[in-house]
Amino acid sequence: MTGRPFAPDLLAGKRILITGGGTGLGRAVARHLVEHGAQVHLWGRRPAVLDEAAASLPGSVHTQVVDVRDGERVDEAMGELWDEHGPLTGVLNNAAANFIAPTESLSPRAFDAVSGTVMKGSFHTTHGAGRRWIAARLPGSVVSTLTTWVWTGSAYVVPSAMGKAAVHAMTMSLAVEWARHGIRLNAVAPGPIPTEYAWQMLNPTGKSGVGATQADQIPMGRMGTVEELANLTMFLLSDACPYLTGQTIAMDGGQMLAGPGTFAGLAEMTDQDWADARAKSEAATAASKAQRGGLGGPH
Ligand SMILES: CCCCC/C=C/C(=O)SCCNC(=O)CCNC(=O)[C@H](O)C(C)(C)COP(=O)(O)OP(=O)(O)OC[C@H]1O[C@@H](n2cnc3c(N)ncnc32)[C@H](O)[C@@H]1OP(=O)(O)O
Ligand SMILES: NC(=O)C1=CN([C@@H]2O[C@H](COP(=O)(O)OP(=O)(O)OC[C@H]3O[C@@H](n4cnc5c(N)ncnc54)[C@H](OP(=O)(O)O)[C@@H]3O)[C@@H](O)[C@H]2O)C=CC1
Questions:
Q1: Is 3.40.50.1110 the CATH classification of the domain at 15-251?
Q2: Cα–Cα dist 61/48, whole Å
Q3: In whole numbers, what is the pLDDT of the chain averaged over residues?
């Protein structure tokens, strides 16, 4: 059980922007931020979705209609937010687009719709906050929600994997460039946490349910939870560890490390299976020893 490891005032005095905060994980994390004392701002493209999300959350929540691919609109909205409410203390780059498709079938617009939302959207938002923090000599914390595909790549979601890898590179690069300004950049890479919109894009039919959206090949035997993601995100957005920067933290129950090129599947073997395996390999060793003459084992 995850519980509530943090004090309710962990984020008191923080003002945090969540892009794509009207649905799914962004909206769920927003609730945890508010419940830990933060003022929260939600961006997305659909006014009704944002309004409904804001109304459902306790505490101080503001919304703006922003397409993060539009750099000029991002800067304008960031200026409005700063002028009306004051400086942000943190940004959560959560907005994303994605769908499964054979890469050879993608049009240029399809590639741009996904990669642009992730890569350009995260850059524009980070840049809009970062240049204001630097000008005002204020610290800041940027957290981006990525995927483990930044290390492994993934077939059939190539524009997303490319966009997320670019934001992983931005995280490492700006962590160094902006460290002297007190601005930190980190990222989280969750394994599957089912949400309505994402599953319509990633597992839309009865035949599309493979590893990435399933629990059966995850060593911990289950999906992640919103509470786990929210706790990790809050830790990174809080003042708990100001020395932490430039890191992308996988939170996937060991999924990425249990690839088909490893022996992870042996978790299915019973005690009898293991006894049989040992007997077979010991027999092979004995046969080998018999051919070694006087040469024994390790000394
Ligand atoms: C499981 C563990 C890891 C999970 C990691 C999760 C990653 C995620 O990011 S899930 C996030 C899912 N959420 C979303 O995608 C929300 C936002 N999505 C959208 O806005 C749409 O679904 C969008 C991605 C299609 C983009 O919409 P929009 O910007 O309005 O673009 P268009 O509808 O005009 O489409 C642009 C272009 O893309 C082509 N296209 C759309 N869908 C598909 C598809 N399924 N397959 C192939 N191509 C597609 C569309 O035809 C357009 O191209 P042109 O025809 O050349 O104009
Ligand atoms: N769910 C999962 O298992 C995992 C998710 N992730 C990541 O977590 C994040 C949230 O995903 P999830 O909640 O599942 O998916 P959702 O589809 O629910 O969230 C995506 C959000 O981004 C917004 N968005 C999309 N395009 C734009 C745009 N151009 N400008 C502004 N906002 C935009 C959408 O709102 P609107 O359409 O109204 O603009 C939506 O609210 C994403 O970054 C995803 O890659 C990572 C690993 C696993």
A1: no
A2: 14
A3: 96
